[in-house]
Amino acid sequence: MTEFPLCPDLSKYARALPATRFILHLQDRQDSAISFLHQLNLLKKESMTIAADVYTIVYTNWFKEIRSISYAVIDMTQDIEEQFILARNILKKAPWIKIICDRCDNVNKASIAFESGADYVCCPAFPKDVLQQSFNPYFYRVNRNSFEICLRVIEQLLEEKPEYKMFVSFISTRNDIKSYMSIILHYLEQGRENEYLLGSDFESFLYEMDVEVLNKLVYIMILMILEEFYRPDVDKNKGKYILFEPLRQLLLRAKFIEELTFYHAGSIDVSWGFSLGIGSLISHMYAFTTSKVDMLIEQIDSRIKKIMHDIPEYETIYKIAVSMESLDLEFVDGIMASGFMTRHDILMAYETAVMWVAGLEEAINQRRF
User: Fold this and answer.
1) I need a labelling partner for 162 at 20 to 30 A (CA). Which of 56, 96, 114, 246 fits?
2) 98: closest CA among 118, 83, 82?
3) What is the DSSP string of 6-57?
4) Residue 66 has what DSSP assignment?
């Protein structure tokens, strides 16, 4: 769900994007002028669906144009009871409308939303309590060492000259995860021929790979191992990966930042983009911490800060990613106005990242190799 004002440029930019990937959230109390309705009709012809908050629907002319709206949005940071009363009145006239509760920043708010009749909740960030509820303490007791090694490997990948020996030793104990290597490489290389895949020994062709591809391969395999700590003892999705939503958000940020860096490829070293995204959010995957985990997270944070200090463009790109996640579009608008990056660049980068994560999940879980 993306909030943008209706304007002449919107339909032009929307044409370049798969409209079915977006729900256009009308800005607060934006009235339904004739010119806006024209823009809306153009977008609907592209199959884009429209959402508006309950106050906008009830207290503006959009109530007369309610057939154009598919979703009513409730802001869970405002008066929840009043908004649900308005939403129920809207449903009496427009029963096809679905209710989205936005800004559910904790589990309790999400539960209240569903109990009150919401069809969907929007959680821009997954707080620690979401992770803690999913964390499997019994699996952790048996695999505690792996939990810490994953973080050590990520910390090493953020060095100027990454060291891979720990990863090679670690992955040699996980043949089940290692068996996905050819699938992941095929996806990352988009079908390009790789002579080094002909070898059976991982370490023998390790240094033959493109470094950026290799680092992504390592990150993905490490995250697959981390995902196992958030599965129930009896898991119907055993053998499937990239399904845990906080992990998907982590990969999404990494790919989004990487795509944003490509627009400044002529002026900065773009090889840090994916790593910056992983490192800046990896602490969210550690709902349970130890002194060793805390120390490693601090080291990763320090390294991320150094990268952004040395390459200031990365700090701006990082802030764009965080602002998009938290729906702070005012900051994003400021970036567009400054000329650092256009609206089209940001939306295309985000769309590419969304499709990339979805494609990775599909490739891994189809197991065609």
Assistant:
1) 246
2) 118
3) --HHHHHHHTTS-GGG-EEEPPTT----HHHHHHHHHHHHTT-EEEEEHHHH
4) G
Burial class (CB in 10 A: 0-12, 13-18, 19+), 127: middle
Distances (CA, A) of 327 to 1, 120, 321, 322: 9, 17, 10, 8
CA distance 88 to 80: 12
Q: What is the pLDDT of residues 109-162, one digit of tens each?
A: 888 999 999 999 987 665 566 677 888 999 999 999 999 999 999 999 999 888
Top pLDDT among 34 and 57 is at 57
Q: Alpha-carbon distance 270 to 135, whole Å?
A: 34
pTM, entire model: 0.75
What are the backbone angles phi and psi of residue 25, rounded to the nearest 5°? Answer: -95, 115
**Going by C-beta distance under 8 Å and a sequence separation of 6 or more, which residues neighbour residue 26?**
3, 6, 50, 51, 52, 53, 56, 62
Residues 6+ apart with CB under 8 A from 96: 70
Separation of alpha carbons 11 and 256, rounded Å: 23
Residue 257 corresponds to which tokens in the numbers above? 């930042």
Instruction: Kindly state the helix (H) or strand (E) to which residue 3 belongs, with its residue range.
Output: strand 2-3
Q: What is 315-353 written as a DSSP string? A: HHHHHHHHHHHTT-HHHHHHHHHHTSS-HHHHHHHHHHH
74: helix, strand or coil: strand
CB 27 within 8 A of CB 5: yes
Using DSSP, state whether 64 is helix, strand or coil: coil
pLDDT at 148: 94
CA distance 10 to 344: 10
Percentage above 90 pLDDT, the chain: 47
Q: What is the pLDDT of residues 275-292, one digit of tens each?
A: 999 999 999 888 788 899
